Amino acid sequence: MSSRSSEGNLTIGVLALQGAFARHIEALTACGVDTVEIRQPKHLEVADLDGLVIPGGESTTMSKLLDSLELREPIGKLLADGLPVFGTCAGMIMLAADVSDGRADQASFATIDIGVRRNGYGRQLDSFEADLEIDALEGDPFRAVFIRAPVVERLGSGVEVLASVDDVPVLCRSGSVLVSSFHPELTDDHRLHEMFVGGLAT
Questions:
Q1: What is the pairing mode between strands 51-54 and 85-88?
Q2: Per-residue pLDDT tens over the stretch 37-49
Q3: What are the structural domains, with CATH classification, of the chain?
Q4: Residue 38 phi, psi (nearest 5)
């Protein structure tokens, strides 16, 4: 880990199995980092990653694809070894220690000690946007897009809440793990991606 490209840039992998991974790549590129689409184990082997983004999508489908493509074990090892990761919406579910309302065979990486409920905010029709006050970000509130978002129901020790909606955490951090129940990639505001990238460079 902690490699640099020939131009000295950080390299971040984006799990590209489904969901809005292309929008994450656009945001990360705007932040000046190199990206690698992770679709097969060989993509992890070739790229010496500084970080990983697990995007939104459908968490049960994503879980099945991780197994069928034999990606779960190599990604799990990287995360266990401390690779920084940013999980959004379904990515939060994939990283949470406990998941409610999931399939019985659905597994997560359990890299952050939170408990979440899938689709806790309701169906697609219940999607909404909210302005978040995030102390870690300078400037205006962050406009957050929630689509079939998970709800954080439990916080473990050492988990920092960076933003909440109606006293429910929606942006959390623990060590090198950052998770959001919303989709920061669906706006032109790249400050959360910049914050994640900035943490890699220190």
A1: parallel
A2: 999 999 998 778 9
A3: 11-201 (3.40.50.880)
A4: -100, 110
Q: Check 172, 185, 190, 193 and give the catalytic one.
A: 185
Task: Select which of 89, 172, 190, 193 is catalytic.
Answer: 89
- Exactly one of 24, 58, 172, 183 is catalytic; which is it? 183
**Which DSSP string do the residues of 110-127 spell out, in sequence order?**
--EEEEEETTTT-SGGG-
Is there a catalytic annotation at residue 160?
no
Annotation marks residue 31 as catalytic: no
* Dihedral angle sign, alpha carbons of residues 117, 122, 124, 127: negative
| CA atoms of 171 and 22, how far apart (whole Å) | 21
pLDDT for residue 97: 95
Binning the chain into helix, strand and coil, the percentages to the nearest 5 are 30, 30, 40
Q: What is the pTM of this model?
A: 0.91
Known catalytic residue at 24? no
